[in-house]
Each structure stands twice: as C-alpha cells, then as structure tokens.
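User: Thanks for the earlier help. One more: GDP-L-fucose synthase. Can you show the sequence and predicted structure together?

Assistant: Of course, both are below.
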Amino acid sequence: MSPDSKIYIAGHKGMVGSAIQRQLEALGFNNIITRSRQELDLLNQAAVAEFFIQEKPAQVYLAAAKVGGIVGNNTYPAQFIYENLTIQNHIIHNAYLNGCKKLIFLGSSCIYPKMAPQPMVETELLQGSLEPTNEPYAIAKIAGIKTCESYNRQYGVDYRSVMPTNLYGTNDNFHPQNSHVIPAMLRRFHEATESNASEVVVWGTGKPMREFLHVDDMAAASIFVAQLAHDKYEALVDPRCSHINVGSGIDCTIRELAETIAKVVGFKGDLVFDISKPDGAPRKLMNVDRLKDLGWSSQISLEEGLQQTYSWFLENALQLREA
C-alpha cells in the first residue's frame, strides 16, 4: 500500500478502530476515510452501497460491531446477531463490488468452543459448542470469517480475519456496570485509593487465568497482517481456516492481574476475593504460533500497558464519570 492509498476504517471511533487509525497515520498513510454513525448507518444497505460507489477504498479495516458484555448479550441476543451479520455483510459485499482487493475483518476469541483445549488454536473453530451467553455474537463473527473465505475462493479477493484475545487500552469503556475486567478493576482500585478504602473486593477465587493484549498491539498486528505479502500469507494459512489469532501468548491469574493493577494505581489496602461469585472458565489463552510464524509478536507488557491505560483514564476521568 502506498501512503496515498485510500483506506476505510469502519468503526474508527471504537477502541480498536481508533488505534488502527492512529497507527496508520503515524506510518504516513494520508488518505484515511472514516464516517461516524450519524454520517453513515452501516445497517442501511443502500447507504453503504452508495458510500462504496463514491469512495471506492483500496483497503478496508472492518472494526465496526455491536459489542457488549454478558448482560448485553443475554438481554439483546437478536440485536447482537442481526446487527453484526448485517454490518459485516454490507461492508464485505460492497467492498467486493467496488474493486476493494484487501479487507481485514476483526473478530473475537469467543468464536471458539466453550471447552476448546488450551491454548486455543485456529483449527478448533467449529469443533464444539459455543459459550451460550454470547453464542449469537460468536455465530456472527464465525459467519464473517467464512464470508471472507468464501469471497476469496469465488472472487479472488484477499480478505483476511484476525481474532483478538481480551483487549484493553486507550478509549476503553470504563463504565462501572458494563465494562470488562481491566477497565472495571482500574476504576475500582482508583476510586478505592481516592476514598482511602481499606480493601477492594474482587469477584471469584482469583484463580482463573486470562490473557490480555493492549489495543495498540492489536492495531499493529492488524496492520501487519494487512501488509503481509500474499505468497507468505498463503504459505502459512489454510484457505478454509484462514483466520489468525492475535494475542500475547501469555496469561496470568485474576489475582495476579489485581495485584498488578493495585501496584499501578498505588492502592495500599487489602485484596478480598468474594468466592460466592462465579469464576467462569478456568483458563482462556490463545495459541499465537501462526502469527509468530508470520513474523509478528506483541511488544507491550501487561504492566506497561496497564500504566499507559491508567494514565489515559486519569486524563479522561471527569468525562468518563459523567458518561
């Protein structure tokens, strides 16, 4: 891709999309196309078709999606499957119709079976039942992978899929009720420090193991995969199992995560683990050998990434609290 190649980022205001935009701009790409939800409704087929006819991007990063936690997935399953299928179908199909040869589809590690062996390798896709709480969302993401593979086979385009582990970082959601584990803990420990609380309660036993990846690493991996030479990509990726796991390849216990966050925030009190609350799966770790074989590994350590994320939270704390 040349610096003036037209690149469309769908979902540029989200955590991943905004990170991709920052990194592309830092790399010197100067023809990045974005549209807010108010400017372009991705659920509107005619509007998306007209946008692609007018803009004809050479490359697309498909980071737009309806996302949420367990409560959202359980409460709005129809919206999660319909909106995600609709958004990705509109973008992928119209990219093809308008000559876009390169597209990166961003998925999620929830595509893998609930009981997949750890660490989860790409070939575990469709080998078992999904986690029921986010099944509609996972099915939509699986459909996105298979849509890209099908368009590659039938139309000769080069549409690639990347599946991230648990992400955190700049522009994360710090809402007290519906944020994920790292932003939720950062906010809770910060508020405990401010109020001189003697303890912070963490759900579960602290024993489950989880993998985390800073969003800037995710953006770097997405751009790396997009720019990878076609022959090198094809040599290492099965066309019928073409998605690529993106993670650090390193996990930690929830207790270790809580202790690191306490250190980053400066909390001096006690950690109390509420064993009446559920632990969830004992381990969720991505196998990232395929990505390493292609030539990319994560660069941001968990503590370094938490420091950066906490600094961003402090700079935006007032705005986030009012949200």
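User: Great, one quick takeaway?

Assistant: The CA atoms of residues 41 and 300 lie 34 Å apart.
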